[in-house]
Each structure stands twice: as C-alpha cells, then as structure tokens.
C-alpha cells in the first residue's frame, strides 16, 4: 500500500518546554510561571508552550497513518537536540521530506523507518522530533493497512518470540503537585509512582537530602494508609535530575549512604532513583552511575538506579547497558529519533539484563503515547510511562486504555492462531 499524500499541521503537546538550565540555577515560581531569564538557546522564556507537528500519511485506499513530531520538556539539555518549534520545521518537512514520502510502500515498517531515521538534509541529520513523528506515522500506516495493531507489527518485524501479549507496568508522573497527584495515583493503583520532579536542591531535595527523605517517608505511609488492599504493592520511582550529586559534591560514599537512607525511608516498598548524578557529560555521568550501581549490588541493596541524562540515543543506551551504569535505563523515546530505535533499545536492554523503561516526556501527545505503548507491549519492556501531561489522570487514561485495547485485540488473534 503506497503513500499518496502527506498532511502536516501544527499541534500542541500535553505540557510545556522548560529551560532546565535556568531551573537548576534556581529560577523561582510566580504561579505556574518561572521567573527570570532563559539560559538555554532559542528559549524565549523559561517556560513556554509545548509544540508538535502532526503528520498524516494518506494511503491509496484512504487509510491514514498518524504520527506526531514531539520533543522532550527539557529540550536542549543533557546533550539533546535544540528547542522544537513547528513554524521552524514545517517548511523543511514540506520541502525536503514530503516529496520522498509520496509513493513509498508501507507494507513493511522497519526498513522504511530506518531509511527516514538515517536521513540527512543539507549534510545534517534530521531533528530527533521529526524522525520520531515520521516513523510513528509509518508504523501506524503499516498496522492500519494490515488491519492489525502496531504491537503485532513490531513483534513480527523484530523477531520477538511469540507469546501472549501482556500488560506492562505503568509509571505515573506528578509534576510539582507531588502530594495531591500521589493521592490520584494511589486511588488508581498505579504500578509505579510518583516521579516527583526533584529538580532543585534548596527547595525539593534539601542540602542534606532531608526534604526528599521526608517526602519518601510520607509517600510510603500514605500508600499504607489509603491502599485498597495489601495486594497493592507499587514501586516508588523518584527522578532527582542530578541533584544528589550536587548536594553531596559528587562524593561517592556520601551519595551511596544517602541512597541507602532513601531505601530505608521507602520501606516496605521498593524504590528507584532516577538521574542521581549529572556531570554535564556522558562519560562522567556514566562512570558515577556505574560505580554506584556496583556498590549497591555489593551490599545487596534493592534500590535501583535509573539512568536518564546523557543516556539519550540508541548508542548511548547500549553504552550504559554494556557498562551496567544503572539497574534500569530510561529509553526517553523522543530523544532516540525513530521509534524503530525504541524497539531496538528495549530488546537490547532485555538481552543485557538491564531494566528497559520505555519512557518519554510529559511534553508529548496522545498519538506518540499510544505508539510507544504498543512498542513497550511488543518488546516486553520493564515499565512504560503514562504520558503526556502532569495531571496523572489524562496520561494514565491514554496509556492504560490503549494497552487494554491492544492486549484484547492482539491476543484474540494470537490465541485464534494457536487453536
């Protein structure tokens, strides 16, 4: 089935673009606004509206494949591509990419996705957001033209062993409303919670980590108080954006001891700490997380480090996995460009015995969230992110409902074939 038309529209994401550098430098709040001057290139303010570009691939029979070009909340930080604005990139897509898409046959996804993921224009590789959106649309077009789910396409084309399609634990994120939103997560019995957005040492972590420790203990007690039954046993997962490294002056022993305190505060629940260190470069961040992972393993700790910053591309993920720099690696889906890389990354982590977290950002769309949920199911990821947005309910609804639909549909065909 061939592509006969491509339709592009400016779209909006489920959250905002935030200048992480300015925030970590201490930018204050005024209501929902951040106060101060931006510090990252192309930002007009520290917080600004999130944008996306929606792509519709129209096939010969009128079937449409949907994809959204979207970038992460903290664009331009941690080695990522710069701020992604629709007005800057729609003309480029129309001129350089649309003519090549017309006439492409979407019978197979993987080879076509790899072609556009590796494309260069004027000697430069396409922005990760463009590669992300185009390959989503290609995957959706292939699935829709074949009348199957995107999960089934991925499992078939990536030679993933057959088996029942199973639910992937869903990780919900709270944003700054870390107490109110935690209650929502407990009511809905989220598998993994709450993210918590600990991105400032003074106001969220504490100079000795005391603020975060208090929050972890509060959260553990809150779950015990309000959970419907003892069967609800979620994993706590806190993203600290490198603030532990800052608070303890990158002293390995101090950071290690603090992580053990976090584990103790979380009991009886397991805890994951994401991004404990950000040295400002890949090598330094990887080495610290490798050392801390090994030290935690040596003492039999159950706390798991989740690598995030500087673990952006497929190459980065393989590098961190090979070095066991983290018990779990966040596969931050927009940062990988083509969603073909998301599938490869999950498979690679699983093969290396490293946790595969099919993540992303609050600053995505419903379309990208549904696509990556399919990939997480197909590749048997350790967990996947409820997205977009920071309100809990909307992102959780989108991902949970898509997951349930895919499981019902794909398993109906799978078990029919087994008979």
Protein model, in words:
This protein is an alpha/beta fold and 419 residues long. The protein is 45% helix and 18% strand. It has 15 helices and 15 strands. It has an eight-stranded parallel beta sheet. Strands 1-4-5 form a three-stranded antiparallel beta sheet. A two-stranded antiparallel sheet has the order 2-3. A hairpin with a 4-residue loop joins strand 4 and strand 5. Helix 4 packs across helix 5, helix 6 runs parallel beside helix 8 and helix 8 packs parallel to helix 10. It is globular. The protein starts with a strand and ends with a helix. The model has no long low-confidence stretch (mean pLDDT 96).
> Helicity, in percent?
40-55%
DSSP strand tally: 15
How many angstroms separate the termini? 30 Å
Mean pLDDT: 96
* SSE-based structural type: alpha/beta
Report the uncertain regions.
Answer: none
Strand content: 15-25%
- Bulk shape: globular
Strand order of the largest sheet: 8-15-14-13-12-11-10-9
> Main sheet?
8 strands, parallel
Radius of gyration (CA) equals 21 Å
Order of helices and strands: EHEEEEHHEEHHEHEHHEHHEHEHEHEHEH
**How many distinct helices?**
15
């Amino acid at each position: 089935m061939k592509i006969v038309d491509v339709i592009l529209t400016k779209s909006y994401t489920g959250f905002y673009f935030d200048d992480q550098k300015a925030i970590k430098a201490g930018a204050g709040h005024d209501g929902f606004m951040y106060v101060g001057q931006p510090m990252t290139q192309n930002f007009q303010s520290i917080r600004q509206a999130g944008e996306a570009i929606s792509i519709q691939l129209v096939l010969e029979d009128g079937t449409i494949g949907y994809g959204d070009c979207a970038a992460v909340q903290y664009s331009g930080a941690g080695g990522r591509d710069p701020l992604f604005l629709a007005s800057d990139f729609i003309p480029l897509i129309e001129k350089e990419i649309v003519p090549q898409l017309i006439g492409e046959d979407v019978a197979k996804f993987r080879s076509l996705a790899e072609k556009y993921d590796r494309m260069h224009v004027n000697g430069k590789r396409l922005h990760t957001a463009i590669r992300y959106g185009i390959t989503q649309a290609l995957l959706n077009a292939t699935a829709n033209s074949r009348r199957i789910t995107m999960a089934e396409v991925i499992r078939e084309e990536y030679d993933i062993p057959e088996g029942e399609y199973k639910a992937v634990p869903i990780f919900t994120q709270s944003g700054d409303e870390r107490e109110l939103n935690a209650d929502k997560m407990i009511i809905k019995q989220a598998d993994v919670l709450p993210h918590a957005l600990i991105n400032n040492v003074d106001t969220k972590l504490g100079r000795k980590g005391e603020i975060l420790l208090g929050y972890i203990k509060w959260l553990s007690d809150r779950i015990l108080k309000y959970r419907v039954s003892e069967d609800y046993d979620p994993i706590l997962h806190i993203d600290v954006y490198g603030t532990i490294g800052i608070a303890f002056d990158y002293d390995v022993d101090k950071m290690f001891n603090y992580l053990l305190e976090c584990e103790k505060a979380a009991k009886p629940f397991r805890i994951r700490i994401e991004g404990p260190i950000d040295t400002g470069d890949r090598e330094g961040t990887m080495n610290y997380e490798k050392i801390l992972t090994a030290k935690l393993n040596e003492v039999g700790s159950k706390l798991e480090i989740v690598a995030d910053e500087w673990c952006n591309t497929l190459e980065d993920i393989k590098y961190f996995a090979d070095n066991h720099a983290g018990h779990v690696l966040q596969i931050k889906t927009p940062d990988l460009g083509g969603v073909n890389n998301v599938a490869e990354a999950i498979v690679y982590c699983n093969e290396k015995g490293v946790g595969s977290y099919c993540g992303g950002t609050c600053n995505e769309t419903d379309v990208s969230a549904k696509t990556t949920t399919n990939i997480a199911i197909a590749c048997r990821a350790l967990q996947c992110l409820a997205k977009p947005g920071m309100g809990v309910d909307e992102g959780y609804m989108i991902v949970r409902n898509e997951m349930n639909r895919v499981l019902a549909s794909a398993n109906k065909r799978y078990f029919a074939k087994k008979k």
